[in-house]
Design goal:
Elements: H1 6-10, H2 13-36, H3 43-47, H4 50-53, E1 56-64, E2 73-82, E3 88-100, H5 104-112, E4 123-125, E5 131-136, E6 141-149, E7 159-170, E8 178-189, E9 198-206, E10 212-216, E11 224-226, H6 230-235, H7 240-248, E12 254-257, H8 259-268, E13 273-275, E14 282-284, H9 288-301, E15 307-309, H10 317-324, H11 332-349, E16 357-358, H12 367-375, E17 380-384, E18 401-405, E19 408-413, H13 415-418, H14 428-448, E20 455-458, H15 466-479, E21 484-486, H16 489-494, H17 513-516, H18 522-538, H19 546-558, H20 568-586, E22 589-591, E23 597-600, E24 603-612, E25 618-626, E26 632-634, E27 638-642, E28 646-656, E29 660-669, E30 675-687, H21 690-725, H22 729-742, H23 744-755, E31 781-783
Parallel strand pairs: 9-12, 9-20, 9-21, 11-13, 12-15, 16-17, 17-19, 23-30, 23-31
Antiparallel strand pairs: 1-2, 2-6, 3-4, 3-5, 3-7, 7-8, 10-11, 13-14, 18-19, 22-24, 24-28, 25-27, 25-29, 26-28, 29-30
């Protein structure tokens, strides 16, 4: 950005003089060569000496102060290593101050240049400020430390000076003194206050990977189960996140936080379980103490600072825009994640965050990403200058904010400053050079247009390592307000846009292929919606919805996290685990399978058992349907409330109109009328009862007739005997009484069959049949009538 005009807009007076002299010498070189017939020695010839200059490796591992003042003493330390097979004699290490850089491009060029160039690398500051090493054997290394008062560097006007450390010496083939190795860095020099300081916004991200599964223990506290315990290491002293908080509390930064990280750490402050690496069983988590300490430290660090909350779980906006927006319902998760972000941060940290910022991966934007990012209310999109490129030929880096239409603002972070610490900062050499280059670029931004104050935003990598965070902090401390002043991200978004800055958002064709290749696939969003559909069907039957909806809702949001980039296999595994676990929970509420039944009688009851192996109670509607209603009618549907860990038997009245088998289906429904689980079919065999009753009645009538005949015969015999024997009436009377006693037996016999015709209604079962009811009914189950 603005590199083409760096020379015109930033060259200091001294640099201009030096360039004029160099140009004059180069212009005169052909003439001199023609007059003297001696070949000219252009810069390319000096660069050809680079072969020798790389024979000794020079590394700068420390430079203090990073942005010195006139009264300071500059100290540069490092190591020299002889990479040749011979001995270097008369070795000496010394500083070299080169010319001021004439633009941001010049800084990049000098940083990548290798070898020694006599015309570009300045003169050696020898004497007492050099360090004599003497002989340096093949493969040997020696540490050095050079100290020199800043006023002895003879720095001129404000600017970025090239600073080199070189080793001179001789070799066996070339025993005279020559530069055998050099390392370059940059020295920002500010002799007096800037006319107008750049307003610098530095984002300080607190983001981590997904650590929590959707699973919880079946206890009242819903103890969470973690995928791993790596977060405890990040929170422990010296860990990445612990360092981010410790370093950030005293820096002029804007905190950018993923609320999921806060929710996860908050869960760790209580009892939590961690999955074993084998996947079988869990173990107790170890991070409870460090989690409490980290949250306490963070609450103090953000006090009085601006906090920006990303949508919960930091959803991958580019993946949503390119792969997910055409999947029905996928975009709705972004709105929910944004709403949850505010409540999570405010609840845990006690501060109200800004939730109107979206941050696509690496600040890479196109029109579809902007549309998705702003769909959930984030009207400020954090982009980067290597994505939203300047096309107007500006001679300076413009203010970060610019209007991109629809009432939305792109906050364009500076690419050079944002990527300054993406390398391996665990090596002191890399860290030192990165810090000096960051300071040089930030000062050069200010020098481009010292009378024009601009707002500059730095958006570093999402998850800096510990060493990267330490280098970032050192660079911010090195600024010390000499040419910059801090500004919050909210204020940077409101800054007056530069009228000449680009406002055109790139098309989707310009999105980097390397980033697109790491996006979540469309299939991932289809699987996410499948899980959401399962959850939507499960939720209505629950009486304690928060026990399921909250953890699974968060798990679904975590499935869309930016942290899954480059972890396609783990992301797919996480989605599978969430869906599998949720489906398993839904199957804990079911109908207990039934076998065929026999109904003997015109009316009877059919029991159906609902089993609930969840911890909480469920509410459903149970419907029993006859596939042939003209033969077997079934009573109305019934509401069922089953306590957690219990079963409930529900009885339906039936009326039989014909004999034979009838298929009957049982189906659970949610209270809002959606089918729940699979339909259960069983066969009911209806037995006709009319012929049996007739036979019983006929048998009873026959017995009565026979009893009457017997009584008549007995009386006739008794009368005849009385006439023949002249017996008195008393005997006849006794005989008559005996006959009547005998006649009672048939009456008792005919009562039982008659009673069997009356349908017997069984009593209602106890509300809770317990776990013993879980098994299927026996083969050929028969319901008494």
């Amino acid at each position: 950005m603005a590199d083409a005009a760096d020379l015109r807009g930033t060259t200091s007076a001294r640099a201009r003089r030096w360039l004029r002299r160099t140009a004059a010498l180069l212009a005169a070189a052909p003439m001199i060569a023609g007059l003297t017939q001696i070949p000219a020695a252009p810069a390319a010839h000096a660069e050809s000496k680079a072969t020798g200059s790389r024979s000794v490796d020079v590394s700068i591992t420390s430079l203090t102060p990073t942005a010195p003042k006139k009264s300071d003493t500059l100290t540069v330390s490092g190591t020299v290593t002889n990479d040749t097979k011979g001995t270097v004699s008369g070795a000496q290490v010394a500083l070299r101050v080169g010319p001021t850089m004439n633009g941001r491009n010049a800084i990049d060029t000098a940083a990548h240049r290798t070898g020694y160039s006599e015309g570009l690398d300045g003169t050696e500051i020898g004497g007492k400020y050099a360090k004599k090493i003497g002989k340096l054997s093949a493969g040997a290394s020696r540490d050095f430390s050079l100290s020199i008062p800043v006023d002895q560097l003879h720095l001129g006007e404000n600017g970025v000076y090239q600073l080199g450390v070189s080793l001179t010496g001789g070799t066996s083939s070339q025993p005279w003194p020559q530069v055998l190795g050099i390392e370059r860095t940059f020295l920002p020099w500010q002799s007096g206050p800037s006319t107008k300081k750049s307003q610098l916004t530095y984002l300080w991200p607190l983001i981590s990977a997904v650590h929590v599964t959707a699973r919880t223990d079946n206890d009242e506290d819903r103890t969470p189960i973690f995928r791993d315990d790596r977060l405890a290491e990040e929170l422990a002293p010296g860990g990445r996140l612990q360092q981010m908080v410790t370093l950030g509390k005293n820096l002029p930064i804007t905190w950018v936080i993923d609320p999921d990280l806060l929710a996860t750490v908050d869960a760790m402050t209580k009892k939590y379980e961690v999955q074993n690496p084998s996947g079988n069983g869990t173990r107790a988590g170890s991070g409870q103490t460090v989690a409490k300490q980290w949250l306490d430290a963070l609450q103090k660090a953000v006090d009085g600072k601006q906090v920006v909350a990303l949508p919960f779980a930091d959803p991958d906006l580019a993946s949503l825009a390119h792969r997910g927006k055409n999947v029905t319902g996928a975009l709705s998760h972004l709105q929910g994640a944004t709403e949850l972000a505010s409540t999570t941060v405010e609840t845990i940290l006690g501060v109200r965050p800004r939730t109107d910022f979206a941050w696509p991966v690496d600040g890479a934007v196109d029109s579809s990403i902007v549309d998705v990012a702003t769909s959930a209310g984030a009207h400020n999109v954090i982009a980067r200058s290597d994505s939203l490129r300047e096309t107007g030929g500006l001679s300076y880096t413009p203010t970060a904010a610019r209007q991109i239409g629809g009432g939305n603002t792109a906050v364009v972070a500076d690419a050079r400053l944002s990527t300054a610490f993406t390398g391996d900062m665990s090596k002191a050499e890399n860290s030192t050079l990165a810090i000096q280059r960051f300071l040089a670029q930030s000062q050069m931004v200010n020098l481009q247009a010292p009378d024009k104050q601009r707002s500059i935003v730095v958006a570093p990598q999402r998850t800096p390592t510990t060493s990267q965070a330490q280098a970032m902090a050192a660079a911010l401390e090195g600024l010390s307000g000499q040419w910059t002043q801090p500004l919050g991200l909210g204020q940077a978004a409101k800054a007056k846009p530069d009228p000449n800055a680009t406002q055109r958002v790139p098309s989707s064709r310009s999105y980097p292929r390397s980033l697109r290749a790491r996006e979540l696939p469309t299939d991932a969003f289809n699987k996410i919606q499948e899980t959401q559909k399962t959850l939507d069907n499960f939720e209505p039957i629950l009486t304690a919805k928060y026990r399921v909806v909250t953890p699974f809702g968060n798990a679904i949001r975590r499935e869309m996290s930016t942290s899954w980039r480059s972890e396609a296999r783990n992301a797919a595994g996480f989605r599978h685990d969430v869906q599998t676990y949720l489906s398993g929970l839904t199957k804990k509420v079911r109908l207990v399978p039934k076998t065929d039944m026999t109904l003997s009688g015109r009316s009877a009851t059919v029991p159906v058992t609902v089993q609930n192996n969840l911890v909480q109670s469920v509410e459903l509607r149970l419907v029993l349907r006859s596939q042939q209603g003209n033969r077997l009618a079934v009573s109305e549907p019934q509401l069922v409330n089953v306590e957690g860990g219990h079963s409930q038997s529900v009885k339906f009245g039936t009326t039989a109109n014909a004999n034979g088998p009838v298929w009957v289906s049982a189906q659970l429904y949610t209270p809002d009328g959606q089918p729940y689980g699979r339909e259960m079919l069983f066969e009911v065999n209806v037995t006709e009862i009319t012929s049996t009753v007739i036979l019983v009645i006929a048998g009873g009538v026959l017995l009565l007739v026979l009893a009457g005949v017997r009584i008549y015969v007995q009386r006739k015999r008794a009368a005849a005997k009385s006439d023949e024997d002249g017996g008195d009436g008393e005997d006849a009377e006794k005989a008559h009484g005996q006959d009547e006693d005998d006649s009672e037996a048939p009456r008792t016999d005919r009562c039982d069959p008659a009673h069997a015709l009356v349908p017997e209604q069984p009593s209602d079962p106890a509300p809770d049949t317990g776990s013993q009811s879980a098994g299927p009914s026996g083969s050929g189950e028969k319901v008494d009538h």
